[in-house]
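W.,

You were right to be curious about this one. When I first looked at the sequence I had no strong expectations either way, so I just let the prediction run and decided to look at it fresh. Below is the sequence, 375 residues in total, followed by the output.
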Amino acid sequence: MAEAVDVAVIGGGIAGISLAYFLSPHRSVTVLERETALGYHSSGRSAAEFAFRFHSAIVGRLAKVSYPFLTNPPAGFTETELLKRRGNLLIADAEKAERLAQVFAEEGAAGPGLERLTVDQAIERAPILNPAYVVDAFYDPDCWDIEAENLLQGCAKGARGNEATIVNKAEVLAARREVDVWILETTAGEVRAKTVVNAAGAWADRTATLFGLKPLGIVPYRRTAITVDLPAGIDVGALPEICEIDEVFYMKPEAGRLLVSPADATESEPCDAQPEELDIAYAAWYLEQATTVAVSHVAHRWAGLRTFASDRVPVVGYSGEKEGFFWLAGQGGFGIQTAPAMGRLAADLVLGNTLAADFGEQGLTAAMFAPGRFE
C-alpha cells in the first residue's frame, strides 16, 4: 500500500471509525488499524449501554447530542434498531440507603422520569434480587442497550461508501513531517497525509511520542466482566440493568446470559487486556451478595481498557506542538454511546468548521476538549 490522502486516522475503534464516517464526505480518509479486525480492543468489549445520567456532565451532554442519530440513523445505515430500551435499576444495601436517597433527590431535581421503588417493587422488576441485601431502590427508564457492532459497522460501511479506505494489520512504525505532509511507515506500506488523527485509544500517548509530541497523560484502566447463566424460569432478557448506587458493581442481560462487572478501574499499560482472577472472583461475589443466583460456572470472562485524560474529559483537537496532528482520545469508556456526537465534533474541528448548533444547545464548546488545556 502506498497512498496519499488528506487525513490518516490511526485507530479503527469506534472513535476513529465514527470520525471517518462524518469526515469522508468532505476529505479523502484512510483509517489505519493495527489489529486484524475493527473494534478489537475497547470498542469490542464495551458493556454497550446508553444513558443520560450517572456519568460526568459532559458525557451526559454528548449522549444527548448522540441520541437523535442513534434513534433515527440515516437510511441504509443499519437494518437493526441501534437503541433498545433496557431501564436501569439502582439499588442500595443498608449502609448506602441514605446515599441512594441523596442521589435520587439530586438526579430527580435535574430531570423528571425517575421512579422510587419499594423493595417488593424492585424485586418485581428484577426477581433475582436478594431481599436480604436490597434496602432501597429506584428506577431510571432512560437506559438503553446499544447495538455496538451495528453502530461500528454502519460507520465503516458509510465511510467506505464515501471512498474512505480502512486498512487492518496496519500498525504505524515511524512517522516524519516533510513540508506540509506526514509520511507514515506502516506494516501495510507507506501512507502520506496532510493531517494525522490520533484515535489510538490506550495507545494514544505512545502514538503521540512516535510523532515527536509530548504525551498528554492519557491513561488506560482495566475493567472486567463475566457472563453467567441464570436458573431456569428466569427471563434474563426481561431484566433491567442493575447497578449498585455508587457503581461498585453492575449487571445486565447479555446474549441470553447475565453480564456482571465489578466496575474495576486498575491502571494498565496499553495491551490486549485480560481479566485477573481476583476481579473475576469479585464479580461473582457481588452477584451472589446482591441476588439469589449461585455462581457455579462462569460462561465467559474478559477485560477491556478505558482511557482517561487527567480531567476525565475527552481530548479532541489539533495539537499546538506539531502541524497537522489531531488528538481524538480519552473517551473513558463512553466512546460507544457518544460516538455520533464525538465523530461529528471531531470532523468539524478537523475541517475548521464552527460546531453545529446542537452542541451549543448542550453548552459544549471546542475549548472544553482542546489538547491545549493541558499546557
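Here's what jumped out at me. The mean pLDDT is 96. And, maybe more interesting for your project: The chain is about 25% helix and 30% strand.

Coffee later to discuss?

I.
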